[in-house]
């Protein structure tokens, strides 16, 4: 099964779980293993209400409405900045004006990364450490090394 198919299947299971499993949501962090079509799916409910699913093929995180809205709004602003830079190029704007806007877009993307990374550490990494999954630390270190190049 492809990753897209896994994501759709897991998303449907998350919706069912969130609707039917009020007890699971009430606990600050609970890991549940389920069998589904020959594979084990691990779902973790984080303290903020978001859910992470790992089926061995792909991982995904169902974000809280506030986190989702914040991230999408930030990306929409960045997208608008990039479109503005393109228009400046098309309109033959002065180089330093374009560089100024480009720098602002890069700073906004950097801010987006900081927010996303902070949320990841507070939820996914913290819960993995509590559950004894130390490989999450190695994964985080590798990502930070790539981001700091």
Could you explain how this protein is built, in words?
The protein has helices at 3-20, 22-26, 65-90, 95-130, 135-147, and strands at residues 30-36, 39-45, 51-54, 59-62. The protein is of the alpha+beta class and 149 residues long. The chain has two domains: 1-62, no CATH class; 64-149, Metal-sensitive repressor, helix protomer (Methane Monooxygenase Hydroxylase, Chain G, domain 1).
Beta-strand content bin: 5-15%
CATH 2nd-level architecture of the largest domain: Up-down Bundle
The CATH class of the largest domain is Mainly Alpha
Proportion in helices:
55-70%
Structural class: alpha+beta
Strand order of the largest sheet: 1-2-3-4
Mean pLDDT: 78
Q: Summarize the biggest pleated sheet.
A: 4 strands, antiparallel
How many H/I helical runs?
5
SSE arrangement, N to C:
HHEEEEHHH
Short description:
By secondary structure, the protein is an alpha+beta fold. The protein has helices spanning 3-20, 22-26, 65-90, 95-130, 135-147; strands at residues 30-36, 39-45, 51-54, 59-62.
Fold blueprint:
Layout: H1 3-20, H2 22-26, E1 30-36, E2 39-45, E3 51-54, E4 59-62, H3 65-90, H4 95-130, H5 135-147
Antiparallel strand pairs: 1-2, 2-3, 3-4
Helix pairs in contact: 3-4, 4-5
Could you list some keywords that capture this structure?
four-stranded antiparallel beta sheet; 66% helix; 2 domains; alpha+beta; 4 strands; 149 residues; Methane Monooxygenase Hydroxylase, Chain G, domain 1; elongated
